[in-house]
Amino acid sequence: MFLEIITPDEKVFSGEVVAVNLPGTEGPFEVLNNHAAVISTLDKGNVKISESHNQVKNVVIDGGLVEVLDNKIIVLAEAIIG
């Protein structure tokens, strides 16, 4: 899957991932390969990016939106915290 995390100021992350955990406004959820198409709002919280089975990055966002379509995930974050 391909993930992009973008704020109004910069592109924070761009690359291939195995899984992404997101802070949805209705509760946290995980996106894996071949996930159903979805658009969701995001709360302030941690985005856990699994680039491989043992390589994980964390990005804390201040809310935003996510679109998942055809193994491409686009996170439009309001801002990055920290």
Structure commentary:
The protein is mainly beta. The chain has one domain (2-81): F0F1 ATP synthase delta/epsilon subunit, N-terminal (ATP Synthase, domain 1). It contains no helices and 7 strands. It has strands at 2-6, 11-16, 19-24, 27-32, 38-52, 55-69, 72-77. A 7-stranded mixed beta sheet has the order 2-1-7-6-5-3-4, with no helix packed on it. β6 and β7 form a beta hairpin.
Sum up the structure in keywords.
seven-stranded mixed sheet; ATP Synthase, domain 1; mainly beta; about 70% strand; about 80 residues; 7 strands
- Dominant shape: globular
Q: Specify the biggest β-sheet.
A: 7 strands, mixed
User: What is the CATH architecture assignment?
Assistant: Sandwich
Distance between the termini: 26 Å
Which spans of ≥5 residues are poorly predicted at pLDDT below 50? none
The named CATH superfamily: F0F1 ATP synthase delta/epsilon subunit, N-terminal
Instruction: Work out the radius of gyration.
Output: 11 Å
Instruction: Give the % helix.
Output: under 10%
CATH domain class = Mainly Beta
The fraction of residues assigned to DSSP E strands is: over 45%
* SSE order: EEEEEEE
CATH topology: ATP Synthase, domain 1
